[in-house]
Automatic annotation (TrEMBL):
Domain Polyvalent protein metallopeptidase, chain residue ranges per copy: 150-281
Domain of life, source organism: Bacteria
Name of protein: Peptidase
Domain N-terminal: from-to ranges: 7-125
Any GO molecular function: single-stranded DNA binding
Length: 302
């Protein structure tokens, strides 16, 4: 059991590390993509979006292997849809958690019963790897105007206080405010417009805002010590990626993004469960912020 659990954490973490190291020179992470990369990957059988660490890991697989779709399924799930995985295709790992009963012997001799979750591996293939699959409908191109309007309404509904001025974006816990540069300071790039750069940056800071003690109460100091700041930045990076995917906004790398890469790699290499923790906390932040929305603002992943 221990060997398998460790192997799952190691395989996923090594995939993420390889992607970061491959993209570091260009500031191009798997979640800094336009087009299909904006969407959360979905399962062919349930039509549900994958969550947490599986979103990140499948984004990585799609980028590294050049897949053009975000639809995935196990070998049997594809067979059940009348499709055939092509011979020689390599699967991608996803993680699910299985609950099991445990018994702990206490100091007083009594036995304490409880439950624990174990990470288990499953293996999936992308729609580009199978024959006989036809998408039910070609999704319409994202309307950038509607996406930005949706993002603006999303942020407004959270009630977060956003101030403008200066040349830095940050969340200040002591005042519980988000500080943003004026919108005209943001520039476009090959993958996103200046407006998208503004909103993706604001969603990054909004994820920081969600970590306050009266919200998600994120605290990494006890486990990660001096690396707690790097972990919080990774959570904000992934949280913004999840939100941008749901809202249809291309996530633009922050100007200071490269400065965090070495710190992230240091944390991930030292702790094989760190990326799982970051992805879990990012998903929790995304869920919390989505829960503040009136019905209909987002089409958040299930």
């Amino acid at each position: 059991m221990t060997t398998q659990r460790t192997d799952v954490y190691t395989q996923v973490t090594d995939n993420i590390i390889a992607a970061i190291e491959a993209g570091a020179g260009q500031w191009q992470m798997p979640w800094h993509r336009s087009g299909e990369g904006l969407n959360r990957p979905v399962n062919i059988d349930t039509s549900n979006a994958y969550r947490g660490i599986n979103v990140i890991n499948l984004w990585v697989s799609a980028q590294v292997r050049g897949f053009t779709t975000g639809t995935w399924g196990t070998y049997r799930q594809w067979q059940n849809k009348g499709c055939q995985v092509r011979k020689g295709e390599k699967s991608s790992l996803v993680v699910f958690y299985k609950e099991f009963d445990v018994e702990d012997q206490k100091d007083d001799g009594e036995t304490e019963h409880g439950k624990r979750l174990m990470a288990r591996a499953s293996w999936v293939f992308n729609a580009d790897q199978v024959d006989g699959y036809e998408a039910s409908a070609i999704p319409e191109p994202t309307d950038p105007v509607k996406s930005i309007d949706k993002a603006e309404r999303f942020v407004s509904a959270t009630g977060a206080v956003v101030r403008h001025g200066g040349d830095r974006a940050f969340y200040r816990p002591s005042e519980d405010i988000i500080q943003m540069p004026d919108r005209e300071r943001f520039l476009g790039s090959e993958t996103s417009t200046a407006t998208e750069a503004y909103w993706s940056t604001l969603l990054h800071e909004l994820t920081h805002w969600s970590g306050a003690s009266n919200r998600c109460d994120r605290q990494f100091g006890k486990r990660f010590g001096d690396d707690a700041y790097a972990m919080e930045e990774l959570v904000a990076e992934l949280g913004a990626a999840f939100l941008c995917a749901d809202l249809g906004v291309t996530l633009e790398p922050r100007p200071d993004h490269a400065a965090y890469l070495d710190n992230w790699l240091k944390v991930l290499k030292a702790d094989k469960k760190a990326i799982f923790t970051a992805a879990s906390q990012a998903a929790r932040a995304s869920d919390y912020l989505t829960g503040l929305q009136p019905a209909g603002i987002t089409e958040a992943a299930a």
